[in-house]
Amino acid sequence: MMQSSVTTLASLLERTFPAGLSGLIFDCDGVMVDSRDVNIGYYNLLLREVGKPPITPEQAGYVQMSTAKEALEYIFSPEELKLLPAIAERYPYRDVALPQLELEPGLADMLHWLRERGVRLGIHTNRGSGMWDLLARFNLCEMFDPVMTAEIVPSKPDPAGVHRILETWKFGPESVGFIGDSATDAAAAQGGGVPLLAYNSPDLPAAVHVDNFAHLRSALERLPRLGRT
Fold it and tell me: Which of 17, 52, 62, 184 is 20 to 30 A from 41 via CA?
């Protein structure tokens, strides 16, 4: 991104958050980690174990936005679902897939920088309890509070997770952004009244579009009001 583009992004952020930015809500898959290929590989392993062909492009698009339960019910028949617990016990996601995941470049540095400036950080994800395994892998468990998973609140596009985070922080929606990459993220953000920062999703309608976290941090550094005052 050219210097002028960082300037443009900073200007967009200032117009989007005229009273300042006090908190950021993060989606996980496609934002914090680029998990698409890893997740598809894991689902293909499960499919192979029940004698089915690899996941289709249509299925891949659905499972990346859904909860694990929704994804499995979408891919497998009721009879096949009965076989999955034993297969998953032999091939746990946390042992097979999780070690392959990597944080998006620049994310960890930006998170620490934001925390130092008093910006609250939360997560609203359609992952389940495995979200904590992911945070632990990257030593980020203490970075986010609260963490809204599909086992705590209804899954996105329901905005319940956004509302719970705002209630916990006692912030108005105008001072909080939601960084997401999918239509379900956009719907949850809209339902919660918070602006969407679309991550690497140029076709997703959003207040702001971001292509990487280093550029986002550079733009945030120019905001006159950052963190809770």
Answer: 184
